[in-house]
Amino acid sequence: MRRFFAWGVLGLFALAISGCFFISAPLTVEKTLLVPFYVYPSWWDPDVYLWDDLAAAGDSARIWAIINPASGPGGPPNEDYQRGLSDIRGHVTILGYVWTNYGQKSLDEVKTEIDVYANEFVSFGLQGIFLDGVASSADYLSYYEELVAYAKGRGLSPVVLNPGTTIDEAYLRNNVGDVIVIFDDAYQALPGWEFPEYLGRYPPEKFGALVYATPEDAFLSVLSQLDQRGFAFVYVTDDDLPNPWDRLPTYWSRLLSVLSPSGQGKYNAVRP
Fold first, then answer.
1. Is 64 domain-assigned?
2. Distance CA 252, CA 129 (A)
C-alpha cells in the first residue's frame, strides 16, 4: 500500500508557542524501519543485550534488521548468535550483511558469503541479504544483477542494495534489488543533499535512507522530509561514527511510537 493518508484530506495545522513551530501531520508513506543491527548478542548481560528489545519492537512496528557478525557472516553462527537470532526470529525480517567493495570484490567471494548465510543462518530465521558498498555507476549493473539473482536463487529474499548515495536509474529500471538505500550519511549532510528527481517515478517501497548522528529534537523533521520525498524504508539514530550502528537510538521508544501502525497516522514535528 503506497499511500494511506492524503494531505488534502487531513490537512495541516500550525501553532507558534514559546518561539517554537509545532506541526501536526500524517506520514503519507507506510514506513518500515531498516535497522543496521551491528550489535553483538551478549545475552548473559541484560544491561547491554538489545536483541530482546529488538524482538519486542518488532511486535509494534515493521522492522527489517541487518545482522553483521564479522563484516559478513564470518562462518556459521556461534552459540551467542544462535541465541540472539532465536530471540528475534518471527518478530523482524532478518537480513545478512555482505560487503561488495563497490563492485571490486570478486563475484565468487560475494557468492561464498551468500552461501554461508543460506546454508548456516536460514535455519535460525535469516531471510534476506543486505549488499553494502554498492557501486552507484551503471558500469556495475550486470555485477549486481548477477548477485541479486544468485541470492534469490538460494532462497534469500528480500535483497537490499546500499550504495548510500544516488544510484544510476538503470538499477531501478531493471529492478535490481528489492530496496535501494540512496542516503546513508549523517544528519548534517541531509539538508544539502540533492534528492534524485527519479524518486517520484518509482514506488516508495524501492527507497531507503539511513540517517545517523540525528539529535532527538530533529528526528521527527527528518522523518517528515523523507516521507514527503517518498521513502518507505527509514532509520534515524543519534549514534555516531566510528560505528553509528552499534546501539539503538536513545529515543528508540519515541521512534517506535511514531512508526507503529497506529502512530503513522499522525505525529508532532517540532521545529525551532
1. yes
2. 24
Beta strand residue intervals within 101-193, DSSP E: 126-132, 159-162, 179-186
Asked whether residue 2 is domain-assigned, the answer is no
In DSSP terms, which residues pair with 162 in a beta bridge? Answer: 132
CATH number, residue 100: 3.20.20.70
For residues 169-196, average pLDDT = 97
Number of neighbours of residue 46 by Cβ within 10 angstroms: 8
Strands (E), the chain: 13-17, 20-25, 32-37, 63-67, 93-99, 126-132, 159-162, 179-186, 207-212, 233-236, 267-271
Query: pLDDT tens across 17-33, in order?
Result: 223 333 446 788 899 99
Model pTM score:
0.88
Read off the C-alpha cell for 87: 530471540
pLDDT tens-digit readout, 86-132: 999 999 999 999 999 999 999 999 999 999 999 999 999 999 999 99
The DSSP code for 200 is G
Of residues 129 and 260, the one with the higher pLDDT is 129
Residue 39 CA to residue 105 CA, distance in Å, equals: 25
131 domain residue, yes or no: yes
Continuous H helices in 104-218: 107-116, 141-153, 170-173
123/52 Cα distance (integer angstroms): 19
For residue 24, what are the domain limits? Answer: 7-271
pLDDT value at residue 19: 34
Q: How far is CA 1 from the centre of its chain?
A: 18
The number of folded domains in the chain is 1
